[in-house]
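$ ./design --mode recover --in tokens.txt
reading tokens...
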């Protein structure tokens, strides 16, 4: 496969960038022409950010799975689409060719049809990192069902809320999942999530761990049985195929829930056409992918990174995507390096938190591992500190591999600000330049563009984007107004990212982190309000306030200040009870790192918690708390300072 839209020089980057801004419709039409459309679009772009309404390739007809699979079959049918590395290195690797992927996805499509799934229905997917997860996602896309993948670390309660919000009628899950030394009982979590649920009709269960599961007659079916039935139905002369549903470019492809500054996660909705074009375009350009290379993105498909850069982007580009079931530190901290060595990985794309955690093990785990196949390294999910950047560069890339620092979000669908490997320059801890089609702007609190440089000669402000790129979110599921108020109402005619950023004299951006009440813990987004709601569910808790603080490995840790009036147990036990409550309500990923019991919280006279003060105390900046005179009871600050953990 060739990529006529691949940017191969700095000059071309500047030229393409300019054209994408001057003539966006012509530019994106020329990129979109390289995909398989059943019918070409009537209009490339229509938009306004006030509603918001964004339509790309309107009237165009396609199915993303024909682009990710069918179009490669003739020339690359026997090439590996997915290489699966299991949790346990002793277990057999599975190599899924494009032909095999086609067969499996067709079977899933027929299986879904047999179980009543139709175009537009919502299918919740709660699985471990097995190839069947990719088949499930693509099988939904093939029949036009909207998938909503939920990360395996979320609790039954979180799943129940998401099922309810999406009014999902179908679930695909596993009996269990392997994660390092643990078996996670996924089906059992689903069973808990379904207590009281009124919408779910069918649960399809793939066998991975053969953990005992309850199978409810009429509702629960085994994946293996259903796939066999489907295969028999659609096999003709040894060929298994299922016609892909024709989708409009603007038909929703998936929902992915993500945290915001309010208590309830939002269902970000992505479209079919624009998302396909953007994920492929960015995959090929950011990583400078060359046919035949092996791309290893270490994310989980439960997050947007896995959707865009394990499944859709690489497969649409006809790449080989390496899918890994385990964790970086099991059976030992050399796991990534073993995988790179064993599969001769060309591109490694991971999170700064993983790099920092592996740095902590020193160089021993790297000894004797041949990393010479690596050509390009990438990071995503959070700002990367310079120390981790240099460690990655020296010890993993051996100073020969460009590192791409890709800034983006669940809502953006794919990378927006990033260097292009070896084409545009890297700058440690800077995401650098916008992709063609992306027009960032830094604004102050009122929405005025920042024009004055700070003492370091940098512009500093809140990061917004002026115009839509093809994979911008289209809505938040079931509540368009929420989409407007969250992203398009803070500043008129701008998409607000929620991030702060710096810009240097060469136009490079450095993302400094969230400016709203959203935390980034190990590259995962968690709303402080969500964690507070969960803590407040504990019977002994009167009130709580949650803030982030710098954490050496996770980037940000969760610090909770809790007013407690229960009498049960000692302080340590109460802490454990609260952690258990958060695990139940959200999942282990939202467990606070520190819980400080306090008698009061710093509040203004109108009752608003002064988080700024709590954040400073959690960060250890107790000497400079700023103005505390507006507080209802300035005395509580002293007490909180003295009790800091
Ligand atoms: O704060 C930014 C941070 O992660 C947020 C988006 O989180 P999520 O939707 O979970 O998506 C993560 C994977 C795309 C952003 O608002 N972030 C993401 N990438 C970077 C980053 N911060 C700094 N540098 C990055 N490269």
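writing sequence...
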């Amino acid at each position: 496969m060739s990529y006529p839209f691949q940017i191969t020089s700095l000059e071309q980057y500047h030229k393409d960038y300019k054209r994408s801004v001057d003539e966006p419709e012509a530019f994106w039409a020329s990129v979109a022409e390289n995909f398989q459309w059943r019918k070409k679009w009537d209009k490339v772009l229509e938009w306004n950010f006030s509603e918001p309404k964004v339509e790309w390739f309107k009237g165009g007809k396609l199915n993303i799975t024909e682009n990710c699979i069918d179009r490669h079959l003739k020339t690359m049918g026997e090439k590996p689409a997915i290489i699966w590395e299991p949790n346990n290195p002793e277990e057999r690797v599975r190599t899924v060719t494009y032909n095999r992927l086609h067969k499996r996805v067709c079977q899933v499509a027929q299986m879904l049809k047999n179980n009543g799934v139709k175009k537009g229905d919502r299918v919740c997917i709660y699985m471990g990192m097995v190839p069947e997860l990719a088949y499930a996602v693509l099988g939904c896309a093939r029949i036009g069902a909207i998938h909503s993948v939920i990360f395996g670390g979320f609790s039954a309660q979180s799943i129940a809320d998401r099922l309810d919000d999406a009014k999902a009628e179908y679930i695909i899950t596993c009996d269990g999942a392997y994660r390092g030394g643990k078996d996670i009982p996924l089906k059992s979590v689903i069973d808990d999530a379904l207590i009281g649920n009124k919408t779910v009709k069918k649960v399809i269960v793939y066998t991975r761990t053969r953990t005992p599961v309850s199978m409810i007659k009429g509702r629960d079916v085994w994946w293996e049985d259903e796939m066999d039935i489907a295969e028999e139905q659609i096999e003709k002369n040894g060929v298994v195929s299922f016609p892909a549903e024709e989708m409009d470019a603007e038909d929703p492809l998936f929902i992915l829930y993500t945290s915001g500054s309010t208590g309830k996660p939002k269902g970000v909705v992505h479209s079919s056409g624009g998302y396909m074009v953007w994920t492929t375009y960015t995959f090929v350009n950011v990583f400078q992918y060359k046919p035949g290379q092996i791309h290893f993105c270490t994310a989980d498909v439960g997050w947007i990174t896995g959707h865009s850069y394990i499944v859709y982007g690489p497969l649409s580009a006809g790449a080989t995507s390496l899918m890994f079931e385990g964790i970086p530190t099991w059976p030992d901290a050399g796991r990534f390096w073993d995988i790179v060595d064993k599969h001769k990985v060309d591109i490694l794309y991971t999170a700064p938190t993983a790099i920092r955690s592996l740095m902590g093990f020193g160089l021993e785990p790297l000894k004797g591992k041949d990393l010479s196949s690596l050509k390009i390294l990438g990071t995503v999910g959070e700002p990367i500190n310079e120390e981790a950047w240099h460690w990655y560069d020296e010890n993993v890339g051996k100073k020969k591999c460009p590192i791409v620092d890709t800034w983006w979000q669940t809502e953006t669908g794919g990378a927006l600000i990033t260097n292009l490997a070896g084409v545009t320059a890297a700058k440690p801890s800077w995401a650098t330049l916008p992709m063609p089609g992306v027009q960032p702007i830094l604004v102050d609190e009122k929405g005025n563009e920042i024009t004055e440089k700070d003492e370091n000669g940098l512009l500093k402000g809140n990061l917004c984007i002026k115009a839509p790129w093809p994979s911008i979110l289209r809505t938040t599921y079931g509540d368009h107004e929420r989409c407007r108020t969250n992203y398009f109402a803070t500043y008129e005619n701008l998409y607000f990212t929620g991030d702060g950023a710096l810009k240097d004299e060469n136009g490079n951006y450095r993302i400094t982190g969230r400016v709203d009440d959203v935390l980034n813990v190990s590259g995962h987004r968690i709303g402080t309000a969500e964690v507070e709601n969960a803590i407040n569910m504990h019977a002994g808790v009167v009130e709580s306030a949650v803030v982030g603080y710098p954490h050496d490995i996770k980037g940000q840790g969760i610090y909770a200040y809790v007013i407690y009036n229960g009498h049960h147990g000692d302080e340590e036990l109460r802490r454990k009870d609260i952690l258990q409550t958060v695990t139940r309500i959200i999942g282990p990923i939202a467990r606070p790192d520190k819980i400080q019991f306090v008698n009061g919280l710093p509040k203004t006279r109108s009752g608003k918690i002064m988080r700024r003060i709590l954040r400073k105390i959690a960060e250890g900046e107790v000497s400079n708390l700023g103005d505390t005179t507006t507080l209802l009871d300035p005395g509580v600050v002293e007490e909180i300072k003295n009790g800091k953990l």
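exit 0
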